[in-house]
Fold this sequence. Notes:
The chain is an alpha/beta fold. The chain has one domain: TIM Barrel. Helices cover 42% and strands 14% of the residues. The protein has ten helices and nine strands. It has helices at 25-41, 58-61, 71-90, 108-117, 129-134, 139-145, 160-169, 173-176, 193-198, 219-233, and strands at 2-4, 14-16, 46-50, 94-97, 123-125, 152-155, 157-158, 183-184, 207-212. Helix 1 (25-41) links the parallel strand 2 and strand 3. Helix 1 packs parallel to helix 3 and helix 3 (71-90) crosses helix 4 (108-117). The relative contact order is 0.17. Residues 2-9 have low confidence and may be disordered.
Amino acid sequence: MARVVRAGAGPESLYSGAFADRATHAAQAEAARTFAARQASFGQRYCMISTIEPPGSPRREHPAVGHGFDPDRLDVVVEGIAACSAAMRAEGVTAALHPHVGGWVETEHELRAVLDGVRPDLLAFGPDTGHMSWAGMDVPAVLRDYADRIVGVHLKDTFAAGIARAAAEDLDYQTATEPGRIWAEPGFGDVDLAACLAAFPAGFAGDYMIEVDVPSLPLRECHQVAFDWARGALP
């Protein structure tokens, strides 16, 4: 993974939990509290929170389509994220929802259910333009709807042809994301990153983090492309 450019004072850490089992929520919240306390000791005020299932799980085998959607499970996930967010907030750290293909918060419906179901003072928003694009969202529209909750962003580009192929062939996450298939250097893919940036609130002071999960170019060239794009595109 190539990560290039940081600016501001937003979230640079990520807490990944399993929130689909109500019986584990108390333990998850305590783990989140411990994690947040450590982040607070580093001076962090925000921390991204996500659900990423392990390799071989159904959503990793059938990514980006909300495989096996269950509204009751989504309610449990919302409760679990809310509990963890409250535990983090008690340590002075605000959680920021980070949607991710291959997890229980993958589709636009799931993303909106979490953000609408957890109070804004407990849960901010840390979007990832690439994962949102792969999951079929109108990324700028979603960013506009929750602009006042964005504290940091992973700016990521995707190849539309790779997304279409992954869906048509029902490729698993690892196969779908082989070099040159889905993840693109910024400006080389099909995400309207200019529209995404335009959706941010005026005076946005959070983090811009450029990610290329799997470079389609040699690593040095990948970094150069990202750097050049950032110099021309970021405010």
